[in-house]
Give the backbone structure.
Amino acid sequence: MGILDLFGADIAMDLGTANTLIYVKGKGIVLNEPSIVAFDRNTKKIIALGNKAKEMQGKEHKGIRVTRPMRDGVIADFEIAEGMIRAFIRQVSSSFMSARRVVVAVPSGITEVEKRAVRDSAEHAGAKEVHLIAEPMAAAIGIGIDVDAPMGSMIIDIGGGTTEIAVIALSGIVNEESIRIAGDEMNNAIMQFFKKNHNILIGEKTAEAIKCEVGSAMPLKEELTIQVKGRDLVGGIPKTTEVSSVEIREALTEAVVQIVDATKLSLERTPPELSADILDRGVMLTGGGALLKGLDERIRMETNLPVHVAEDPLTAVARGAGKVIENLNHYSRVLIRNRRY
């Protein structure tokens, strides 16, 4: 172990709207926790983060605030995000270690100001050198695609805050669509559906559970039903109702249609030679949204292309960013170029 190894770990981070994953060089993925922070409203001191903070969500009293510092794939609350990044890095490295080099995966549609916010947050959290990589590029590397090849690959990475659609060839993104319609928007649609159709208020956690259990993009062979508990809007008392997967599919229709439309738009902008490659190789789905029942089938039906769900889609971006930190010199061309003001 060299002297530098004693004072810093090289890490890769998928700083997602829903979850944060950290990959430590030589160790693999060592942290996978919700991007949620609970803090004291008066002192701004972090009380809990990750899974512990998620358990408090929707149940906190007025002295505690539970928040998600990431919105739509980017930092919404700078101070809290910085505290979260610092705390997560501290969790995965021993007390005297700070992060030496960090690779952070960010949405491909990120603005210069948003890039600066991510970079500054990581630097303030102790990183000596910060590199950014576009999420679809990291996902492609994570699922084993040779991004250097003169061959077109299409990735659809559906996270919590954004859906990233990219055509990749020769270590670069040929075209990209980044829309702020993803898992969060689907949860929101489910919450609104219950409010309008059943006069029930449900929380974000409940909406997420409903989406995972009975949410779908296509009719199921056997439609499912689920018992849902919430607060009656009229009487104000707790209430249970039963809904079917057909109703939830209807609630999710708008978000699914927007993802499909963005995919078609990206295909329209793809050069013909790369379109031929995509026809041969198909489209890869990554991110948590890839697990929505029937989504691959729906995109296949709408585009007439082969669509595959990646193995372990939730960790694809973190695994790809990890491969980059393991061999930074080889992958230097795929990183987002630094532009200083």
